[in-house]
Amino acid sequence: MSIGLFTDKNYRPPEAQVLESIGARLPLWHDLIRAVRERYRVQEDFKFLYGKSYGWASRFRVNGQLLISLFPTQGGFTAQINLSPEAIEKALSLNLSKNIQQAISRANPYPEGRWLFIPVETEMDVVDVLRLVAMRAETKRLAVDK
After folding, report:
1. CATH of residue 47
2. pLDDT of residue 144
């Protein structure tokens, strides 16, 4: 099973189709994107990432460093955040939503950290994803001021 809905590299889905696929969770998508744009000086693109197991995603980077990627799914979306081992330890000490906790436990640990894939389903998930994005920015020393 793929992370995102749009897994054909040769078919870049139009924005209207992406937004339609997200469905009822579209307000969460917009809230998360708005918050990332407000807090960070991001470069954005919609790109086919990592192959057909992942697919097309909205990617947000700061100074060339990945901050967060959002993969549209049928009826929602998945946020990808890569965290260092230190950030993972810090995240585990926080009172995070069930979706975040499950994403951490599912993620394979590597020496450089874990790739978290978080299905964003609630406003609390958005809040917690933004907390993890802040950890990512801090770890990578990405500028926060706009």
Report:
1. 3.90.1150.30
2. 57
